[in-house]
Amino acid sequence: MNRRILGISAAVMLAVFGTLVIVGYVRNADARAMEGKKTVNVLVVQKTIAAGTPASQLAESVKAQSVIKDDEAMGAVANVDDLNVLVASAQLVPGEQLVRGRFIDASAYQATGGQVDVPKGLLQTTVALDPERAVGGLLSPGMHVAVTASFDDKNGDPAETHMILHQILVTNVQVTQASDKTSKSDSSSTDINATATKPGDAPSGRFLVTLALDAPSSERVVFAAERGSLWLSNEPAGAPTTGTKDVDRLNVLS
């Protein structure tokens, strides 16, 4: 009987020891993954931040976190003081890194009430784009973009790419993201920021980008979206626009 009790006790102790070893291994997994890799400190959103929130009020909504350099988002911020007197241009959600591109001057935000005035005589056309075709998801209303159209080989026509429009005003940005409880085909529309699963992850879902266009430009954008593909590039004022051409396989390397 004593031998049986001793055997059971030993088995329990071994099971407890094995569990502790596994827990310790898992806890140190992230540290081992980061060994030998350069890391940087970034601020990660912990609580939803409303559009228009001043950077000076972000202390309780963000947390400093160390990430691998390769996972650092473009324009990531390590100190809220770096944002000075700027305000959030759109809603920020938990899990994403705090980036400079999400903030604008308080005066600019207040002047529009967070809305973009569409110049008289222009239409508003919306296109659905994957994040990499929409500046990595860093678009926000009020930005200006260049539009590039690209077409694959089809019916004997060669593949071509060309930047067709410049300085196009973005009037609205939303993102459609499938719910974890629904199928991929059942998606819902949310604000500009998609939830990331970890710092540095790209937004998921498709971006619905609304552009202010004249009638002929709207036709060209719709045709390219339907028959080919579109890419948007952030185009600040003064960015050079010369030197573009129709690019195909024959001249892409020249």
Descriptive overview:
This protein folds into 2 domains: 37-112, Alpha-Beta Complex (Type Iii Antifreeze Protein Isoform Hplc 12), CATH 3.90.1210.10; 123-234, no CATH class. It has 4 helices and 10 strands, in the order ααββββαβββββαβ. With 254 residues, the protein is an alpha+beta fold. 20% of the residues lie in helices and 28% in strands. The longest helix is centred in the N-terminal third of the chain and has 26 residues, at 2-27. The chain has helices at residues 2-27, 29-34, 106-112, 215-227; strands at 39-45, 62-68, 86-88, 103-105, 123-129, 144-151, 160-178, 187-190, 206-213, 229-234.
* C-alpha Rg (nearest Å): 25 Å
Mean of all residue-level pLDDT scores: 78
Overall 3D shape: elongated
How many domains?
2
Strand content: 25-35%
Order of helices and strands: HHEEEEHEEEEEHE
Instruction: Provide the low-confidence segments as ranges.
Output: 178-199
Query: In total, how many beta strands?
Result: 10
Give the biggest sheet: 6 strands, antiparallel
In DSSP terms, counting alpha (H) and pi (I) runs of 4 or more, how many helices? 4
Calculate the terminal CA-CA distance, rounded to whole Å: 87 Å
Structural class: alpha+beta
Query: What share of residues is helical?
Result: 10-25%
